[in-house]
From TrEMBL:
InterPro entries: Acyl_CoA_acyltransferase (IPR016181), GNAT_dom (IPR000182), NAT_camello-type (IPR050769). Its EC number is 2.3.-.-. This is GNAT family N-acetyltransferase. Keywords: Acyltransferase, Transferase. GO terms for molecular function: acyltransferase activity. It holds the Pfam family Acetyltransf_1. It is an enzyme of class 2 (transferase). Residues 1-156 form the N-acetyltransferase domain.
Length: 156
């Protein structure tokens, strides 16, 4: 996950955005309604991740109406769905998302599934558009906001 924020996002590690990457157990394994999936290849190398937690998007930095639509506790937020470039376009991300959605459905307490993505990451926006509905595209705001696209993912 840390490789992704450096390579794909170009931001490097930013504590207020990426603290869960440094403490994945505290963020995704200890809390009962959270999970972290890790995909490994035959050599045991991590090639993909996907996580889910019960924290809705915060305002700020996200638009107020998005935060109000997806409150913490009843929103499953998909996070850290990353696949290493050499393993993309093989259905791995879709499989990770399917497993995360099954986890959310089994929980029974989630009313919605939300995620946001940076469309500058190669393949991210078309992938999420194939699975989810755009609820807010910050690029359409005056000044372009942060350029983030917010999605509602259908519960399965």
């Amino acid at each position: 996950m840390l490789d992704t924020v450096y390579r794909d996002f170009g931001t490097g590690y930013v504590p207020r955005w990426h603290g869960d990457i440094i403490d994945p157990a505290g963020a995704y394994l200890v809390p009962e309604r959270h999970t972290l999936l890790v995909a490994v290849d035959k050599a045991g190398e991590v090639v993909g991740t996907g996580a889910l937690d019960s924290r809705g998007p915060a305002h700020p930095p996200n638009p107020r109406h998005v935060a109000e639509r997806y409150p913490s506790g009843v929103t499953a937020q998909l996070r850290r769905v990353y696949v290493r470039p050499g393993h993309r376009r093989r259905g791995l991300a879709r499989r990770l998302v399917d497993e995360l959605l099954a986890f959310a459905a089994a929980d029974g307490g989630y009313r919605a599934v939300y995620l946001h993505t940076d469309p500058a990451v190669t393949g991210a926006e078309p992938f999420w558009r194939s699975l989810a509905k755009v609820v807010h595209d910050e690029r359409e705001e005056a000044g372009g906001g942060e350029g983030i696209v917010h999605f509602d993912v259908p519960m399965r």
